[in-house]
Amino acid sequence: MSLHLYDTARRALREFVPQHAGTASIYVCGATVQGVPHVGHVRSGLDFDVLRRWLAHSGYDVLLVRNVTDIDDKILTKAEAAGRPWWEWAATHERAFSAAYDALGCIPPSVEPRATGHVTEMVELIERLIERGHAYAVDGDVYFAVGTWPSYGELSGQRVDEMEQGEGADPRGKRDPRDFTLWKGAKPGEPDWPTPWGRGRPGWHLECSAMATHYLGPRFDIHGGGLDLVFPHHENELAQSRAAGDGFAEYWLHNAWVTMSGAKMSKSLGNTLTIPAVLERVRPVELRYYLVAPHYRSTLEYSEEALAEASAAYHRIETFVHRVHDRVGAVEVGRVSDAFAAAMDDDIATPAALAEVHESVRRGNAALDAGHRTEALALAGAVRAMTGVLGLDPVVWAETSGAGGSGDAARQALGSLVDALLEQRTRARAERDFARADALRDELTAAGVVVEDNADGPTWTLKDGA
């Protein structure tokens, strides 16, 4: 089976056929750096990180552009309220987003452009639109004329006469309330750049069209982002880019929201959970598991109980891999199973893919307990391969210092302590001091360490929740 993806524009699953053989080009709408990232923000980054990993695993050279919106009404408003320069406010929170992506194991994008670095490209795009009769300037502002583009609404499926751009009741100089802003004339105290229409700053929708085509060309494969961006942001991107003569994105992919009590997680509603706050309760790899386990198009209702269940589920995976390592030997990366590949090719169906991972863990534990060491080792290798595609490989997380909240150094230190106690226990049993041996085992159990005695000697794992 070849990779099929759900295209929002076509409202159907479509076989993925790239513009250029062997290369997959992706533009993902990144953060508007107005505040500290919450779990709703990073879900998009994680979902498209998994897509990128699967494309790479499938043999594609992946070019992924994820932008930073560092000039925006919300950034200016919040910076002013805090009494801080807008550029410093944006830079501070850009670093917070980068730290969150890094902590959760996202591969850095091929390039991460800032909007403020591409004003020249934005001005050129506006000039093309004006020349083609799809945009007009009024008193320093420039608007896209929606009525000149008959295909407007094709992405979101909304009727043009029912659309609201959310730009205020009476913007300056608009000929039609459906028109949207490409360029905003300068206002006192705001940053601005020179243009043929006077000084000002770019509109949000313009920014992404200019950056996407600058790095990926006039036609590229996939445009991604959160479901909340379908309208007006992506609808407007598509309209202005096509009206300017660019083919733009061939596939449109959208991840669903993270909600609390049925409402989209957002700062304006006050129902956010920041990444630093959540990482005080679970390890980064466990939060990543929680966020990538549902299908990317399924709404994720946040709850502490579900987060705890995800942590326990991931712990079962890593415990199996470590058991095999301790009892059989080093676990090398194997190959993904056919069932896992089929799930990923079916619109990146991570629930089915993880079900295959856990089935392999179950079979591997059974093989290990039955003494079938070769089978257990092969299954552990497959688990490493499959979890690697999802960015969840236990060995990688253990070897990445600090990335898992329980890095290699911590595991080595714990292992040294446990091994010393096990050696004392083995010596006590050899000396028939069974009371001492039992006391040492009880001490380890109380600390969350499960000891198993087998023909190869005692082995240990951490029990769920420890």
Automatic annotation (TrEMBL):
Give the enzyme's EC designation.
Answer: 6.1.1.16
- Domain Cysteinyl-tRNA synthetase class Ia DALR, chain residue ranges per copy: 339-398
Q: Which domain of life is it from?
A: Bacteria
One Pfam family from the record: CysS_C
Which BP terms in the Gene Ontology apply to this protein? cysteinyl-tRNA aminoacylation
Cofactor dependency: Zn(2+)
Q: Which stretch carries the motif 'HIGH' region?
A: 31-41
From the UniProt entry, list the residue stretches annotated as the region Disordered: 162-197
- Which residues bind ATP per the record? K267
Q: Which residues bind Zn(2+)?
A: C29, C208, H233, E237
PANTHER family per the UniProt record, alphabetical: CYSTEINE--TRNA LIGASE, CYSTEINYL-TRNA SYNTHETASE
Q: Which family does it belong to?
A: Belongs to the class-I aminoacyl-tRNA synthetase family.
HAMAP family according to UniProt: Cys_tRNA_synth
Name recorded for this polypeptide:
Cysteine--tRNA ligase
The species this protein belongs to is: Actinomycetospora succinea
